[in-house]
Amino acid sequence: METLRQIRAKNYSYIVLLCFVLITVSATSPLSPSDQGTEQHATSAEQDKSHVHEVHCSRERSRAAWKVIEEYLMPFVEREKYELPRQCRLHPSNDIFRDQEEHKIHLDVNEWRCGYCKKSFRAEKFLDQHFDNRHSNLLDGQSKCMADVCGALHCDLVMEFKSKKTKCNPAAAARNRHLCEGLADKCFPANQSPSTTRLHELFLRQFCDAHTCSGGRKPFSRGGKKHTNRFYLAASVLTLMLLPLFYLIVYLYQREMKRGTQELKRITKIGRKSKPS
Length: 277
Fold this sequence. Notes:
Residues 32-56 are annotated as: Disordered. The protein is mostly helical. It is built from 11 helices and 3 strands. Strands 1-2-3 form a 3-stranded antiparallel beta sheet.
């Protein structure tokens, strides 16, 4: 009987242990609602990353190219009342980042806002990252990379990447000149009209002639957009504010001088009358 009791006790212990293991496994295996949400969020994040459009185009250099176009080309184009043809690589529709750049809202020095979802960022580079991560699906796949024409437009000078002591590469200069002349022919066909002829010549002088290792012309030799000098503007405002004060001081000084002269004359007259005869 003692042996049977021991066997039953052991069997009972095994049953209790098995039940405990089953309860533990069943309690830990199903995900709680919060865990399921976390897993779904992680999955959706991975899906978002997998759906991000991989764009092999430098946003920074594209922005530099557009800056050169706005500063050193468009003032002359607007003066001639000429519209760039859509087949021209410099047309805004051919910039893959143009729509995103136009949806940047610069509120303050340290505040940038996304025009799509209204999220705010403290620097432009963080807004660029946001565009890459969240709104890359809005990029126009038919547009081209504006950074591809940076060599022709001297973007390095605008970005201040190019050192003055960098040795000139004749092969690179020849490639950039060829690209530059192709842009001039495509965007401003010579002999099509007086305006296009003038703009074609200006584009060659403004950009293409500087692609040489023999020195000579410098980029942007025809100048660009005129900016109001902030120091000059501040000095002008300050002068306008101080000018009335200056005249007021001069007026008061002259009045005091006249009053002093009159007092001196009165004293002189009184002194003369008081002398004995």
